[in-house]
Amino acid sequence: MNPRLVEIALRKQRLQLRAEAQRDDMVHRLRGIDATLDRLDAAREHLAWAKEKAPLLSIGVLTVLALKPRLTLRLARRAWVGWLLLRQARGRPLAALLPVAAPVLGRLLGALSRAISQRAARG
C-alpha cells in the first residue's frame, strides 16, 4: 500500500476522532444553556398569555383595588421599595431620585390613607 495513502487515512481517522470529541464537549457545555432557554421560552409564553388577557387582568386589579385598598397600598409600598432596591443594586444613585419622588409619593400615600380611613368610617 502506498505510504502516502496510509498517512492520509491516519490523518482522516485522527480528524474524525477529534471532531467526535469536540461534539461531545459541545453537547456537555450546552446542557445548561438548554435548561435556561426552556425557562426563557416558558416566561415568554406567560407574557404572551398576560398580553392576551390584559382586559381581564385589569379588571382583576381594579376589583382588588376597590375591595382591598389596604392590600393595594401594601403592595404598592413593597413594589416601590423593591424598585428602589433594584436601582441601588444596579449602582445608580438614589440621591438624585428621592428629592423629586419623595414628595409625590408622600402625597399619594396621604391621599390613599385618607381614602382608606374614610371608607373604614363609612362602613
Rg over CA atoms: 30 Å
Share of helix, binned = over 70%
Task: Please count the helical segments.
Answer: 4
Amount of beta strand: under 5%
What would you say this structure looks like, in words?
The chain has 123 residues and is mainly alpha-helical. The protein has two domains: 1-52; 68-122. 89% of the residues lie in helices and 0% in strands. It is built from four helices and no strands. The protein has helices at 3-52, 54-67, 69-89, 98-122. Helix 2 (54-67) packs across helix 3 (69-89). The mean pLDDT is 83.
Features of the shown structure:
123 residues; elongated; YqjK-like protein; YqjK; mainly alpha; 2 domains
Task: Compose a concise summary of this entry.
With 123 residues, the chain is an all-alpha fold.
What secondary-structure arrangement, pairings included, does this model have?
Blueprint: H1 3-52, H2 54-67, H3 69-89, H4 98-122
Helix pairs in contact: 2-3
